[in-house]
Specification:
Blueprint (H helix, E strand, L loop, with lengths): L1 H28 L9 E6 L1 E15 L5 E11 L5 E4 L4 E4 L10 E2 L1 E5 L4 E6 L9 E2 L6 E2 L10 E6 L6 E7 L10 E6 L10 E7 L2 E8 L2 E8 L4 E9 L3 E5 L2 E6 L2 E5 L4 E5 L5 E8 L2 E6 L4 E5 L13 E2 L2 E2 L8 E9 L7 E8 L12 E7 L7 E3 L5 H4 L10 E4 L5 E4 L19 E3 L25 E5 L4 E6 L5 E6 L9 H4 L3
Parallel strand pairs: 5-12, 26-30
Antiparallel strand pairs: 1-7, 2-3, 4-5, 6-10, 8-9, 8-11, 11-12, 13-36, 14-15, 15-16, 16-17, 18-19, 19-20, 20-21, 22-23, 23-24, 24-25, 27-28, 28-29, 29-30, 31-32, 32-33, 34-35, 35-36
């Protein structure tokens, strides 16, 4: 009996050992090594961002100076894509992290074929220590709220014979996106004491027409408004518009058109044009001697001499409310349909005598729609709309700007019976809806300057996101910007190392 039990236990142990051996063999045979590897994805984790808000009211350092004040918030790093260039072996974020980002953060990095990975500074010595990558450890991509530094990420093939190095550079903006900056430029005496100032911008520069006496002289600003060159002299009643990078000047029944240096001309006396209003989407708009808005196609300049080349535009509203003075315009692309643009005409009525009548005149029209649209009057009669309307001010000036906005400034209020509370040239008005409502945009303000309310002042934006404030008060000139208006679509080239 004992012998039988012994044999039975021996049989059971033998079977268990056999099964165990099979499992071990299977596990070993399922493990595979690979000769190649690569980083396949790189995603940033949560980023701590500190935003500067000024000096603390009471806190001071040991030297008695006010202490800087910040507030901190979390930014999801996954919102900022990280690009992997497998050809050059470079990894970088094409859109920078917010200014003030703390450059120590988690990063999820995936590799091909389950490879191991380590990293260290890009320019570290050959014998420098490597840090093994762990998804739960924060990586220092640079000094907090300072310049970034390049890292060398090395992935190891599981066979151990092949390695691959990547240069990793994660950058953050050096400027706060919505912060306003301005620079006081040298005064330009060419604009001093001008009776009128009108502006336009093309890819070749910013153009300003200054009227003095019987002449309107056209100047081109280069080097970001630092230098100005006289281009051409026109008559005292000349008006200017820009469309598709070309300048158009109406002077004594002749329209001059060109790039600001070379000009062609066409006789438009048959149309009895009084002044140019502006251009938009291949159309040029003007007011004729009858007070009607007329339209001409810039692609048909050669035919402008014919009587039917310019057509009268329809208006939806009272034509008597079309502006008669201080007229300016701005054209912006529609955000939804970039094939359609909206031109806005801004100005003042001949007189403001009724109490409470303190609003500028604003009309707009969509250009490029499949169905021809009419000019529409932005009626500020409703009390809610009136509180957001653009005030009637002397020497109104407007310009299209970043993100489809229209910026406007003005001098003294026109209705003496209802004085405006704003001070002349102390506020930039911004409209994001084609001139229907105007408000003070957070972060956007006038420079800290004092300008004569009796002198015209011009606001004009260039194609690079800067706008200029130019005054006939001594020719004072300022270059302004919202930081993100001047940022390019990709910021990596600004920070990329050699």
């Amino acid at each position: 009996m004992t012998k039988r039990l012994y044999c039975l236990w021996a049989l059971i142990i033998s079977i268990l050992f056999s099964v165990s051996s099979c499992m071990k063999d299977d596990a070993t045979s399922s493990y595979t090594t690979y000769e190649d590897t690569a980083i396949t994805s790189f995603t940033l984790g949560t980023v701590k961002v500190s935003r500067y808000v000024g000096k603390k009211k009471y806190a001071k350092d040991a030297d008695g100076n006010p202490v800087d004040s910040f507030f901190t918030y979390n930014y999801s790093g996954s919102k900022t894509p990280v690009y992997i260039d497998q050809l050059t072996k470079e990894i970088y974020n094409t859109d920078s992290l917010p200014a003030g980002s703390h450059m120590k953060m988690l990063a999820t990095v995936n590799t091909k074929n389950y490879s191991s990975m380590s990293y260290r500074d890009w320019d570290a010595a050959d014998d420098a220590t490597w840090t093994r990558y762990n998804s739960g450890d924060s990586i220092v991509f640079g000094e907090d709220r300072a310049d970034s530094k390049a890292l060398r990420f090395r992935v190891w093939a599981t066979q151990g014979d092949y390695i691959c190095d990547y240069k990793v550079l994660i950058v953050s903006h050096k400027e706060y996106a919505d912060s306003f900056q301005y620079v006081t430029l040298a005064q330009q005496t060419i604009f001093a004491d001008a009776e009128k100032l009108k502006g336009a911008a093309t890819y070749t520069g910013v153009y300003v027409m200054a009227k003095k006496g019987t002449e309107n002289k056209l100047y081109c600003g280069s080097n970001y408004g630092s230098s100005w060159t006289e281009k051409k002299t026109f008559g005292s009643e000349a008006t200017m518009a820009e469309e598709e990078g070309q300048l158009y000047v109406l002077d004594n029944n002749i329209i001059y058109h060109g790039d600001g240096t070379t000009w062609d001309e066409v006789d438009v006396s048959v149309h009895k044009l009084k002044m140019l209003l502006g251009g938009s989407n291949g159309s040029l708009f003007a007011i004729n001697e009858d007070g009607k808005i007329v339209e001409g196609q810039t692609s048909e300049i050669a035919s402008w001499t014919s009587a039917d080349a310019w057509t009268v535009d329809e208006v939806y509203g009272n034509e008597e409310l079309l502006p008669t003075k201080d007229i300016c315009s701005a054209s912006v692309d529609q955000r939804v349909n970039t094939n359609v643009s909206r031109i806005t005409i801004i100005g003042n009525k001949a007189s403001y005598t009724e109490k409470g009548d303190t609003c500028a005149v604003v009309w707009n029209k969509n250009v490029g729609s499949i169905v021809e649209e009419k000019w529409v009057y932005n009626d500020p009669a409703d009390s809610k709309i009136k509180s957001l309307a653009l005030p009637a001010m002397e020497n109104l000036s407007a310009t299209p700007y970043y993100n489809g906005w229209i910026l406007a400034i003005g001098g003294k209020g026109l209705n003496a019976t209802t004085p405006l509370v704003n001070k002349p040239y102390q506020r930039v008005y911004c409209s994001e809806d084609g001139g229907t409502s105007w408000h003070k945009l957070a972060g956007l303000r006038m420079p800290d300057l004092t300008l004569s309310s009796d002198k015209p002042t011009l606001i004009i934006a260039d194609v690079e996101g800067y706008f200029y404030i130019i005054s006939a008060d001594g020719g004072k000139t300022y270059r302004c910007k919202l930081n993100n208006a001047t940022w390019k679509s990709t910021d990596y080239q600004e920070y990329k190392e050699d």
